[in-house]
Amino acid sequence: MTALTVIILTQDEARHIGRAIASVRDIATRIVVVDSGSTDDTVAIARKAGAEVLHHTWVNHAEQFNWALDQIMDQTGWILRLDADEIVTPQLASEIKAGLPDVDGFFIGRRIKFMGQIVRYGGLFPVQVMRLFRNGAGRCEARWMDEHIVVEGPRWSLKGEIIDDNCNSLDWWIAKHNAYASREVIDVLNREYRFQEGANTMPARSRTGFKRLLKLQVYGRLPPGLRAGAYFFYRYVVRLGFLDGAQARSFHVLQGFWYRYLVDAKLAEVRREMRANGDDPVEAIRRVLGIDLAALSQTADRHAA
Fold this sequence. Notes:
Blueprint: E1 4-10, H1 17-24, E2 30-35, H2 42-48, E3 52-55, H3 61-71, E4 78-81, E5 86-88, H4 90-98, E6 105-114, E7 117-118, E8 127-134, E9 138-140, E10 149-151, E11 155-165, H5 170-193, H6 207-217, H7 226-238, H8 246-277, H9 281-289, H10 293-304
Parallel strand pairs: 1-2, 1-4, 2-3, 6-11
Antiparallel strand pairs: 4-8, 5-11, 6-7, 6-8, 9-10
């Protein structure tokens, strides 16, 4: 097996980081944890587990991951992106360890475990995501939400999977998705007003690009509010989400309806602010969502310099 660097982004992930590192210890030649100001034991646990810890001020996931890539651009081999609350399954580790075909990137199946229960129905999982690629062949698209790694060269799929198994409370999950909804509103408005460059770079011919095209051209054309209910009906009834266990059914309701409705409600609130006060989208986002894009852009520019 050639060199493999695993990149993990963290902030207050003491509950998960040791488990994530343990899942890749036998296949990684280098584990790089990029921390954005943890106040718990994340950094100490990561270092004790053998990871190299770098520090970088948070802007968003895409900027953070691309900054990490810039720190190792002169290194040969493969890059694996792993979230702190994810684990690499033994099957995937064995595939990687056995040697990889001569391509530039690999799609890996990703499953969700919600409140301790695997989500099996709803037509969602495993989602095929680009997570493993040759260093220099891929980069994360500059989006605020639903960002993916873009690899233009030959790609393949592996049979092993990554499991997302977050052990935090439901209150934590709700707060996180409340923040996600604000970030998705930024992406929706950016598609319309183009106040930030570099987003929406996913090739339409890719699997993820095709799914995004469906989201924009089918889901996005439905009336706000109604589309959340239609999507939930598709997942819960048509794709048999009701057959899942109790915790997984909660996931369908919360992620498939509540979250999607929340995005639409926040989007409508920002648009009302724009109409009422004549604000441009950047100012309306700052007033309504509390996200200062201008200040964050300056932070990112300083990091790039």
